[in-house]
Amino acid sequence: MSEQSHLMGVESDMLPLFEKRTLELQRRLKDEGIDILIITNIDSIYYYSAYWGDLGLEFGRPTILTVASNGDVSLITPGSESLMAQAMTWIDDLGFYSDGVGEEWRDPLRKALGDNANSSRIAIEKDDIPAVISNYLNQAFGLNNLSDGTAIIADMRVIKSAEELNMIRQAGQVAIAMGIGGRDAMAVGVPEYEVSLACINAGTRKAAEIIGDEDQDALMSPMIHNLQAVQSGHFTSYTHLHPRVKKLAHGDPVYMCFCSICHFKQFKIGYDREYFIGSVDDETARTYNTAIDAQAASLAEMRPGAIAEDVHKAADEVYQSAGFAPSYRTGRALGYSSLEEPQLKYGDKTPLKVGMVFAVDGGITVPDVFGARVGDTVIVTDDGIEIATEFPRELTVV
Fold it and tell me: ∠ CA 122-126-131 to the nearest 5 degrees?
C-alpha cells in the first residue's frame, strides 16, 4: 500500500478490505484456471481497487483493472487523474497514460498482460467490456474467444461486509433526508424541478454531515447528482420522467424516486416515496394502498432461507387479488451497482442469505391516470430484515 494512499485516501481505514477482496478474487481465478481477469465495469473496478475516476470512454480515456491469479494487479487510468489514483487505491502498479502519447491506454494494458498473453487464459466482463477494448484484445493478441469472469465478480458481491452494510445504512439516511426535503417543498404552484432541487440540497447536506464527522479531508464528495425521477398528476404513470417546469396542482400525486440519484460513498440505494397535494380520491387511494400492501407482503416473506421468487409471489398475489395486473419484479439486489444479483422475480430460486441487500418495491401503473410507487432498501439479517430507509409509507396528504 502506498504511503500517499494511506495519508490521503478517503477510504484509508478501509483499504485493507479492498485488498482482501482482490486476494479472494485471485484465489477464485486460480480455482477456475483463469490467468488474468480484465475488469472494465467502473463499479467492479471500485469494488477491488477503491478507485473511481471522473473520466471514461466518453472522453476516450478508459480505466482498466487487471488482476492476475499469480498475484499481479495493475490499475490503468489517465495520467491526468494520477494524483487521485495514488491517493485512493492500495494498488502500487499504476499504469498512467496520456492522450496522443504512444498507444495511450494500450501500452500499459499490453505490459499488464505480459509476453505470454497469447497462451494465457484471459477473462473479461463480457457484458460490460467496451468494444474498443475487446477489439484491441482481438487484433493485438488474437484473443477473440475470451472467458467470461462476470459470474465470479457477481458472486463475490452478493453478500455485503459489515463495513458495506454500515455505509448502506448511511446512504439510507441520505435518501430519507432527500425525501423529507422534497416532501416539505411540495405545495400548490411549486414546479416539479423545485421539489427535486429540495431533494438534492437536503441529501447533499446530510451526506456532508456524515462525511464531515468522519474525515474533513475526505476525497469523497457529498454532492448529490444525476437527474432524478419526479412526476406529478397523471404523469406519475410515466414512472421515470424527470422533473419539469409543470406546477403542482391541488389533488396531484407527487412521486419521487431516489434510485438514480442517491449515490453515497459509491453505494446505490433503493428508495421511493409518494405524496398527495391537498386531497386524494377514493380510487387513487385504493390503488396506492394496494401498492403499499404488496410491498408489505414481500417484506413479511423476507428472511434467511426464503426463496427470491417467493418474495415476489407474495406481492403479486396482492396485486391480482385487488384486480391489478401481475408485476415483472418486486426487487433487485444492489450495492455498488443499482442492479446486482439475485432478483426478486419469477424464475430466480436463490435462497436469501444474511448480508444480502435489496431494493424492494411496490408499484402499480394505471396508464395516463396514476402510478403508485413505494420502495425501500432492505438488508437480510439473522432473524429477518432491517430496512435501511425506514420512513412512513402510509398515504399522506400534504
Answer: 100
